[in-house]
Write a structure and sequence with these properties.
Number of strands: 2
CATH superfamily: Hypothetical protein af1432
Structural class: mainly alpha
CATH architecture: Orthogonal Bundle
Helix content: 55-70%
Shape: globular
Radius of gyration: 17 Å
Mean pLDDT: 93
Largest sheet: 2 strands, antiparallel
Distance between the termini: 62 Å
Number of domains: 1
Number of helices: 12
CATH topology: Hypothetical protein af1432
Strand content: under 5%
Order of helices and strands: HEEHHHHHHHHHHH
């Protein structure tokens, strides 16, 4: 007979499969469909492993960043994805996501529930070097998708370069070279007509 601990872990794992059904506004590169939360989180994990070396002034715990990026959108199973440029939908986002965190992390054994909840809250607060890197990657990844789909989602949602610059402005403080990359992508997207000035 399996332990209650394993049973709760499996319940959480099965619940996480729902992330494959939560669609974001971003389009996948080379495809006509929107990206899912599960794909987004996986992509961020790859980015964290590869790009952590670019962080300025502080060493980061890459395993901690990996955990953060893998669980940062778990709450969207209940709360849904809130489009970053939709100010109206963002008004109750914190309430919806906090309620979701209570339920979803509560499925886990107490020690893991506490760890995951603390990582999620740390990501939301964006104060630690790990959380700031995770946040920068969470903004860079969609930027890469938008650029490499010729601005498809930007165009559909009438997004301007000023909005994209504002969304990504914290990146340079985390990693100067990544900040430079962001600026170059935005400038080139405007030049190519992917993004309105």
């Amino acid at each position: 007979m399996i332990t209650e601990r394993l049973s709760r872990q499996i319940e959480f794992i099965v619940e996480m499969d729902k992330m494959k059904q939560i669609y974001r506004k971003n389009f996948v590169i080379g495809g006509e469909r929107h990206e899912t939360d599960a794909e987004h989180s996986w992509h961020l994990a790859i980015m964290a492993v590869l790009l952590a070396e670019h962080v300025d002034k502080a060493q980061v715990d890459v395993l901690k960043v990996l955990k953060m990026v893998l669980i940062h959108d778990v709450v969207e199973i209940d709360a849904g994805d809130t489009y970053c440029f939709d100010q109206q939908a963002g008004l109750d986002k914190a309430v919806r996501e906090t309620q979701a965190a209570d339920r979803l992390f509560g499925l886990l054994p107490d020690d893991q529930a506490g760890e995951f909840r603390a990582l999620w809250e740390e990501f939301e607060q964006k104060q630690s070097p790990e959380a700031r890197l995770a946040d920068a990657l969470d903004r860079l990844q969609p930027l890469l998708l938008h650029y490499h789909t010729q601005g498809k989602s930007w165009k559909l949602n009438n997004i301007t370069s000023d909005k994209v610059k504002t969304r990504n402005q914290r990146t340079a403080a985390v990693a100067a070279e990544l900040g430079q990359l962001v600026d170059e992508i935005i400038q080139d997207a405007v030049r190519k007509g992917y993004l309105k000035k």
